[in-house]
Write a structure and sequence with these properties.
- The complex is a heterodimer of chains A (76) and B (351).
- The radius of gyration of chain A is 11 Å and the shape is globular.
- Chain A has helices at 2-12, 34-48, 54-58, 63-75.
- Chain A has one domain.
- In chain A, helix 1 (2-12) runs antiparallel to helix 2 (34-48).
- Chain A is built from four helices and no strands.
- With 351 residues, chain B is an alpha/beta fold.
- Chain B has one domain: Thiolase/Chalcone synthase (Peroxisomal Thiolase, Chain A, domain 1, 3-Layer(aba) Sandwich), CATH 3.40.47.
- Helices cover 32% and strands 25% of the residues of chain B.
- Chain B is built from eleven helices and 15 strands.
- Chain B has helices at 31-37, 39-49, 63-78, 102-109, 127-141, 164-167, 232-254, 271-280, 292-295, 302-309, 312-317, and strands at 7-12, 14-23, 27-29, 53-55, 87-91, 117-121, 146-153, 173-181, 187-194, 202-203, 229-230, 263-266, 320-328, 332-340, 345-350.
- The N and C termini of chain B lie far apart (45 Å).
- Classes of the chains: A mainly alpha (76), B alpha/beta (351).
- At the A-B interface, helix 2 and helix 3 of A face helix 2, helix 7 and helix 8 of B.
Chain lengths: 76, 351
């Protein structure tokens, strides 16, 4: 998960240590907008070789939600 | 779910003789958009799309004008009499009129004889490999000895100036490529495909004969239906799913391993996406030139524009094995693996 957390930290412009499963995707300093979603699709593809659906990703509210989506997609 | 890769077909006995791109002289840098959107927002988008500057036409110049200039320059450079051109195909989504076809106007503009096959094709990002396949097939069958492919777009005219996702992304360019008879034993390999289930993800909802803005698609609420709408996430997903297997299969079908191609010219969709695709296909950066930083996403013109901006010297001096990869609006995609050069003409000019 390290590479994924580092990538998410880069997308949100925070320290990697700040990224936890509870991290809120829409927060005081960032929006969970289309740019962040597209970046996350590429990151997940890089890290897990899984292509997430944009709409499902947009519905996520925390890092934990994304991880659950990756786990589900990986099983399909 | 994986998308089908496409229809595979090979053409022999035809070659590219030359290519000229014409871009508007009017240049818009990112600073131009700072006032409208705020510099922070512009910087966010630029980080993703990688466009530093783009060329936009003025109000009166159209794709046809850019292609006319490119075509005249190309004919002169090749020393081709206009009357020796048997077919002219115009590939664009920004024709002069809904009717008549712009290819007919261009036939007259270029002084080509009326004994000329001329028609339009409505394709965007995938249009160049499609046009090459068709033009080379026409030469192979003997239907035409010399074919001009006028491939270009002026998407600046249909972007919503208040939509930063598209206003910052696109640039204008018109190109013309000349095709004539070539070596009988040299084959060009193509893969061509479509998936209309993605039609509404990149669309101008209104202006044809159906009004998609009446469809209650929530994504179009508060959008100008006469302007280009793009669902960036969906397009990105489509690209990630379809392009890497298309690259792999193109090399396999052509019998030329990826590493034996001199260059892969990708439609210049978005810099972040291009870098991701190149990495995924394990392509060396020097084999995947880009010009989106200088010209933006120029729709169907992006691949021939790369030929004249990024690898013109190589194409003029030697024979290069190229992989061409176009993908996007439709959805539609097309690839080619072929040898090109040495070309008598490979040049970018300004309107």
């Amino acid at each position: 998960m390290t590479k994924f957390y580092e990538g998410m930290a880069e997308i949100f412009e925070v320290e990697p240590a700040d990224i936890t499963p509870q991290f809120e995707l829409s927060n005081a300093s960032a929006d969970w907008d289309s740019l962040a979603i597209v970046s996350t699709i590429a990151l997940v593809d890089d890290c897990f070789n899984v292509t997430l659906d944009g709409e499902a990703l947009a519905a996520c509210t925390t890092i934990g939600d994304i991880e659950a989506l990756v786990a589900k997609a990986g099983k399909e | 779910m994986s998308l089908p890769i496409g229809r595979e077909t090979a053409v022999s006995g035809a070659r590219i003789a030359g290519v000229v791109s014409c871009v508007p002289s009017r240049q818009l840098t990112n600073a131009h958009f700072g006032e409208m959107f705020g510099q922070d927002k512009v910087d966010d988008v630029i980080k993703m799309i990688g466009v530093q500057t783009r060329r936009w036409t003025d109000a009166t110049t159209t794709t046809r004008d850019l292609c006319r200039n490119a075509g005249l320059h190309l004919l002169a450079g090749l020393g081709w009499e206009a009357d020796s051109v048997d077919a002219l195909i115009f590939v664009s989504q920004t024709p002069d009129f809904r009717l008549p076809a712009t290819a007919c106007a261009l036939q007259a503009d270029l002084g080509i004889s009326p004994n000329c096959i001329a028609f339009d094709i409505n394709l965007g990002c995938s249009g160049y490999p499609y046009a090459l396949w068709l033009g080379m097939t026409m030469v192979q069958t003997g239907a035409a000895r010399r074919v001009l492919l006028a491939v270009g777009d002026t998407i600046s005219k249909i972007v919503d100036p208040s939509d930063r996702a598209t206003a910052l992304l696109f640039g204008d360019a018109g190109t013309v490529t000349a095709i004539e008879a070539g070596e009988a034993d040299e084959r060009a390999h193509f893969i061509l495909g479509s998936d209309g289930r993605g039609a509404t993800n990149l669309i101008v909802p209104k202006g044809g004969f159906k009004d998609y803005s009446l469809s209650n698609d929530p994504r179009l609420a508060d959008k100008d239906a006469a302007c280009l709408y793009m669902d960036g996430g969906q397009i990105f997903n489509f690209t990630l799913r379809s392009v890497p297997p298309l690259v792999a299969r193109t090399a396999e079908y052509a019998g030329t391993p990826i590493e034996e191609h001199d260059y892969f010219l990708f439609h210049q969709a978005n810099l972040f996406m291009l870098k991701h695709l190149a990495k995924k296909a394990k392509l060396a950066p020097e084999k995947t030139p880009f010009n989106i930083d200088q010209y933006g996403n120029t729709s169907c013109a992006s691949i021939p524009l790369l030929m004249t901006t990024s690898i013109a010297e190589q194409l003029k001096t030697r024979r290069c094995k190229l992989g061409l990869i176009g993908f996007g609006v439709g959805y539609s995609w097309a690839s080619a693996s072929l040898s090109v050069g040495p070309l008598a003409v490979a040049e970018t000019i300004e309107q």
